[in-house]
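Notes to self, Tyrosine recombinase XerD:
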Amino acid sequence: MKTALPAPRPLDALELPAGLDGRHGTNRAHGRTQVAATDDLSAMRAWLARFTSTKTTFDNYRKEAERLLLWAVLQRGKPLSSLTHEDLLVYQQFLADPQPGARWTASGGRKHPRSDPRWRPFYGPLAPASQRQAMVILNVMFAWLVQAGYLAGNPLSLSRQRARRGQPRIVRYLSPELWLEVKSWIQSMPQETAREREHHARVRWLFTLLYLGGLRITEVGTNTMGRFFRRGDESGQDRWWLEVLGKGDRERLVPATAEMMTELGTYRRTRGLPTLPSPGEATPLVLPIGQSRRPLTRAALHRIVKDVFSGAAQALRARGEDQAHRADRLEQASAHWLRHSAGSHMADQQVDLRLVRDNLGHASLTTTSQYLHVDDDRRHRETGEKHRIDW
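result:
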């Protein structure tokens, strides 16, 4: 008999009823465990505790674990530690269309705070790539729970293992022509009032960081202006750098070019700050409108970028139906597209791939080589020109 909870609740506010908490799950191991957890929720929290120092990873892992646990209890009426391989196959199908929608999907696809009664685990159906990513994360969780001695086996270990394929070319980036449309839109933004001028300056500086620096959106939100520093090169010339604490707590040095420093100085002056930052200065890289000096959240930064892309797309549509395809592409774009655009445009300009790798903080050249669009374009053009059938 299924025991139903009234509505999904976030992990931090979830209390599982007896019989569904996993204390007697059919997949529980019965030997010595390496964790103190005696129920599924405690075991899941023990796994998540390993990632608390990296917010983005923690948020993504918690989201997928939370979704599965709630689905197991609400939809299947069984503890997480009783899920079988067949259950997980059904769950994969569920991710493509979480139903019933009123229970699982936030109204209008809006992201409500976790404390809000309107909060839901999903914002809509997951794309195939997101479905795969969810199952990869869950496989990591199950494998750890088995290693910790909490579960007897990993129900995902029976899934068909696909041969590892080479990385495809990056496709989520803006061509130089489309990037020019975005810059033109930013320059045309209204600047009649003090607030509009401040917003325009912020947008221009944010897009400078994302494009010239190739920064991730989370890196913009978590780093400060005090991380800019200058040092002399071998010729004695001072050069500015930005030390970025990035993904996986890895640090990298991003060249703060003359262009970037000019834009930084302009932005700082609009906020009443000295042109150049001081060492260790705690000012966030991008500031809220007004007097606040608190860093913007990832969601707030993301919204600023999406609004710019949306505005530029609307401007394209106003020029005629022949611009619809380009406008559609802009509306799909996100902040990460600017990072991909930075890598692609550097590669197109024949910047040494080793330098592109270090600028973007890639672990290997294999990742960076995905930006070599020029090689693909040349291959296509020369094949068409030189390999013909000529009926």
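- The two ends are 70 Å apart (CA to CA).
- The chain has two domains: 11-147, 176-381.
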